[in-house]
Design brief:
The chain contains three helices and six strands. It is 40% helix and 26% strand. The chain has a single domain, classed as Alpha-Beta Complex (Outer Surface Protein A, domain 3). By secondary structure, it is an alpha+beta fold. The radius of gyration is 13 Å and the shape is globular. A three-stranded antiparallel beta sheet has the order 5-1-6. Strands 2-3-4 form a three-stranded antiparallel beta sheet, with helices on one face. α1 packs across α2. The two termini are 22 Å apart.
Length: 95
């Protein structure tokens, strides 16, 4: 998971307001409010960066324990992939 490129599922309606991402699960239309860590990842999940790269950017911007950051980031992305919110790839997205 750590070295995969992540991107938002284009079928997922979402909006970030006042630093919180509001995301609707495509399959069941449930609204999810993402915490600060998840919103940071969500907003940067463009398919051209790996989770590792995004987490490194987050580590530079915020004072957070790297082990905790990694665990939280992986947990969020694994859950988001399971829910269909985020897609992963072994290669960066084109364009």
């Amino acid at each position: 998971m750590w070295s995969l490129y992540i991107r938002q599922n284009p079928d997922t309606p979402a909006r970030t307001i006042d630093g919180e991402a509001l995301v609707i699960t495509p399959e069941d239309s449930k609204l999810h409010t993402l915490n600060e860590t998840a919103t940071y990842i969500w907003d940067r999940a463009d398919g051209r960066r790996t989770l590792e790269t995004i987490a490194a950017e987050m580590g530079e911007e915020f004072e957070v324990d790297p082990t905790t950051l990694r665990a939280d980031a992986v947990a969020f992305v694994e859950d988001a992939v399971r829910r269909g919110l985020i897609l992963t790839s072994e290669a960066p997205a084109s364009g």
